[in-house]
């Protein structure tokens, strides 16, 4: 772990051996990681509907009947599931607010005051509104709109139908399988943005998740680091013990076959990270007198 302006730079290595098999990858590939919503946002949504822990963990059946705003199916179609599972691992409750979402939330809001509040932003430029300036998540917007009103239980089905699914996040691999055949390394920046005139800080969803994983694995005190809290064990504790949901995405980008081909690397910021793997590979092959 290193420090950068306004944040941290995490270098993380993951063991690719599982069940007697080793995941195969190339230096130019990407590691696709599944995101997990932070506990604070899940608790916030639960408070809007006045759910207790028992309600969050109770089995419910979801029958998909449409698409989310991004065109994807809003739920995985696994039944039964729980409200807690949907909020932690399936629905993108932390993403940016869109005009389409404002319209739908206003239509199903808990009362005229909330509807008026949400409709006010529908006709503003979102990029310059309080929503964007304060980096409000979807749950935080719903809380501000409702004030002390409770969102009705039946509107949770509406929330499921309009919320996009959590997306994969892709990291360039910064290790070479020829040097480290049983591990994959990535580098991630954890930048904390302070919201003006508030005591809130903002950390990206995936960066916050990986940072939480880093804190737990190294048994560090989070009071010394940017705050982030995630349910790291996953549904039914399937990814406990410092694991994560991930897979390899093959890339068409490849270095020239011949190591005699001149190469100029150009990148900005964290874009330089995959070059580490390229250099590792070329250095190893060169030391063994192998071309390519």
From TrEMBL:
Keyword set includes Lyase: no
Limits of the Sulfite reductase [NADPH] flavoprotein alpha-component-like FAD-binding domain: 9-209
Domain of life: Eukaryota
EC number assigned by the record: 1.6.2.4
Cross-referenced Gene3D superfamilies: NADPH-cytochrome p450 Reductase, Chain A, domain 3, Nucleotide-binding domain of ferredoxin-NADP reductase (FNR) module, Translation factors
The entry's keywords: FAD, Flavoprotein, Oxidoreductase
GO MF, any single term: flavin adenine dinucleotide binding
Pfam families for this protein: FAD_binding_1 (PF00667)
InterPro entries (alphabetical): CysJ-like_FAD-binding, FNR_nucleotide-bd, NADPH_Cyt_P450_Rdtase_alpha, Riboflavin_synthase-like_b-brl
Cofactor entry: FAD
Enzyme class: oxidoreductase
A GO cellular component annotation in the UniProt record: cytosol
The protein, known as: NADPH--hemoprotein reductase
């Amino acid at each position: 772990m290193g420090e950068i302006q306004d944040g941290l730079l995490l270098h993380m290595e993951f063991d690719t051996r599982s069940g007697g098999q080793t995941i195969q990858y190339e230096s130019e590939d990407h590691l696709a990681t599944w995101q997990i919503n932070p506990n604070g946002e899940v608790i916030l949504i639960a408070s809007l509907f006045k759910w207790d822990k028992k309600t969050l963990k109770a089995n419910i059946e979801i029958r998909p009947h449409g698409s989310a705003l991004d065109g994807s199916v809003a739920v995985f179609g696994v039944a039964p599931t729980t409200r807690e599972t949907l909020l932690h691992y399936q629905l993108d409750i932390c993403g940016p607010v869109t005009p389409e979402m404002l319209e739908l939330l206003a239509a199903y809001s808990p009362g005229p005051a909330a509807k008026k509040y949400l409709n006010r932003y529908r006709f503003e430029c979102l990029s310059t509104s309080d929503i964007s300036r304060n980096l409000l998540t979807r749950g935080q917007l719903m809380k501000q709109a409702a004030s002390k009103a409770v969102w009705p239980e039946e509107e949770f089905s509406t929330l499921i139908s309009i919320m996009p699914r959590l997306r994969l996040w892709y990291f360039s691999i910064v290790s070479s399988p020829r040097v480290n055949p049983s591990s994959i390394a990535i580098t991630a920046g954890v930048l904390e943005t302070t919201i003006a005139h508030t005591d809130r800080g903002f950390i990206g969803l995936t960066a916050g998740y990986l940072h939480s994983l880093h804190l737990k694995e190294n048994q560090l005190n989070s009071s010394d680091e940017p705050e982030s809290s995630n349910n790291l064990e996953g549904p039914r504790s399937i990814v406990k013990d410092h694991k994560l949901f991930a897979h390899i995405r093959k890339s068409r980008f490849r270095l020239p076959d011949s190591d005699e081909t001149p190469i100029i690397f150009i990148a900005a910021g964290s874009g330089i990270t995959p070059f580490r793997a390229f250099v590792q590979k070329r250095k190893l092959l060169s030391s063994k007198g192998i071309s390519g």
